[in-house]
Amino acid sequence: MSQLNGAYYGPSIPPPRKSYHRPSRGGGCLSCCCGCIFNCILGLICKILTAVIVVAAVVAVLFWLIVRPNVVKFRVTDAALAQFAYGNNNTLRYDLALNVSIRNPNRRVGIYYDDVEALALYQDVRFGSQTLGPFFQHHKNTTVLSPVFKGQHVVPLGADQVSELDKEKGSGVYSIDVKLLMTVRFKFVLFKTGNVKPKIQCELHVPLKSPNGTDAVFQATQCDWDYKRWWFH
To answer: What is the mean pLDDT of residues 87-97?
Structure first.
């Protein structure tokens, strides 16, 4: 190969690049340690929550197997309506006596009835109330409450309600609702629950007693209890 002499007229040759290494700050190890600690704490919390859920589920199943709770049943077994007259000044005169049966079918659960109030309503308008004393109901027990509503009360009824009242007056059977407002506690051996406030509603069709004694027969009525969700079946 021949030796080239003289000036070089080709493209310029770039100067060689200098390599530059950024100094390490030493944070990689610290970040790794923090991430490991966070993962360990998170894993421990998950294990504790899982253990708590499992223990609570086991306790609930064991409680159900031992106690076998059943729904307390409320039933109006008898109703006597001696007076139900709506007159001037929107005044309702009434005389209603009831027998309400409360059945506790549970074998191991007793019930404290700390507060019981009975309300009587006609077409969603209250006309009477009575407070009943506190009592304790043992297991496998039936208790009968006998509220009496008697007196007079101003009951403002609309035109449609008065029309319905006239129809029932003609048939001699009145649609009366009775509500029981309660504060109760449940007892299992030595353990007692906190306060529970169920609302019991009884939709009754009560015949008015006739002067000649030819009265229609009241049909015993089962009441609805909105706290059935507190029991398992």
So the answer is: 93
